[in-house]
Structures are given as structure tokens and as C-alpha cells.
Design brief:
Helices cover 36% and strands 31% of the residues. It has 205 residues and is an alpha+beta fold. It has one domain: 4-Layer Sandwich (Glutamine Phosphoribosylpyrophosphate, subunit 1, domain 1), CATH 3.60.20.10. The strands form three sheets. It has a five-stranded antiparallel beta sheet with strand order 10-1-2-11-12, with helices on one face. A five-stranded antiparallel beta sheet has the order 5-6-7-8-9, with helices on one face. Strand 11 and strand 12 form a beta hairpin. Helix 3 runs antiparallel to helix 4.
Length: 205
Amino acid sequence: MQKYLKGTTTLAFICKDGVVVGSDTRSTMGFLISDKKSKKIYNIDDRMALTTAGLVGDNVTLVRIMKAQAALSRLEKKPLTVKGAANLLSNILYSRRGFPFMVQLVLAGYDSEPHVYELDAVGGMSEKSVSATGSGSPTAYGVLESEYSEGMSMEDGIKLATKAVKSAIERDAASGNHIDIVTVTKDGYAEVPQETIKEILKSFE
């Protein structure tokens, strides 16, 4: 199993008007870089994002389940809150604790306010202001804990997320290639254009 476990860097944190979510795009299989443009941030609902680390098949299965549950809740005119979605995902993971999904997840979103929840493979759940997962997370945390501040603007948050993922890519061999950044606010889920990310990276040179 260790041969096929995936390395990655994902992160999410709360800003003044929403949450910023980031990841690298490298997928590995042992020492092989199996995908240079792997998707690790998923749009679960209008104002919810899920970051994925671990086995790709397990992550994709959980993304499909959560998208379906969010759609059903909207049809019933009882849309999931971020906490409600996190509890549902926690229950799904716990129900499989005997044969667990090999994943580490971060659910981030905005309902009446921004939220970030971190979940482990057997359903452990904790609400955080700042979260990072994957093999590059120790390096990412080093940047986040030194530069993150409560109430920071979304613009500053995008720059910080880019810097944290960039730092992880430079030190973790299992993270790399490109950087994806997403924001979630009361206006919804939005992907930060790659051109913007490239401009931010230039400012660090």
C-alpha cells in the first residue's frame, strides 16, 4: 500500500470575507510522477470546496457522494451548511473505519460565515482557522503560521496560499508542477486564474 500512497500539498484558511483554498497539481505513484495536472480541489456545492489527499480513487468516490448529497439537499430546499456537510462526510468515513478510505480531507466553505473543517480517514473532524494536509504540509504550515493573521483580506490570502504551496513544492518531492487556488465567499466558489497566480509567483522572485 505504501507504494501507491500519494504525496501532495493542500491547504485552506479563513479570511475576512471567505476562505482561500490551495493545492499543488502533482500526483505520484512511488517514485513515478503519474500526473502533472492532477485536480485536488473540488467544487462540492455553490459555496463549498473539498481538498483531497491520499488515494485518488477513494477521493473521487467521496467527491461524487458529497456532490450528490449536496444536490439532493438543494432539491429538498434544505441546503447543507458547511458544518452539516462536514458531519455527513465524517459519518461516511467512520462507517468505513474497518476498511477505510485512504484519504485526508479539508472541507472549506461559506454559509453565514466562513468555515474550515479537517477530516481524517476514519471520520475524525476538527474545525480550524488554518489547515494543511499531505506530505508538503509541514513546509506549508511553516509559512502559514508565520504569516497568517485573522481577518486578512482575500487578496492577501490568495498571495499567502500561493506562497505556502510554492514553499512546499520547493522542499517536498511529492508536491510540484503547478498551483491551484480557489476562493469561496458569499458570492460562491471561484477559481483564481492561472495568470494571476503566475504574477504572484513573479513577485516572490
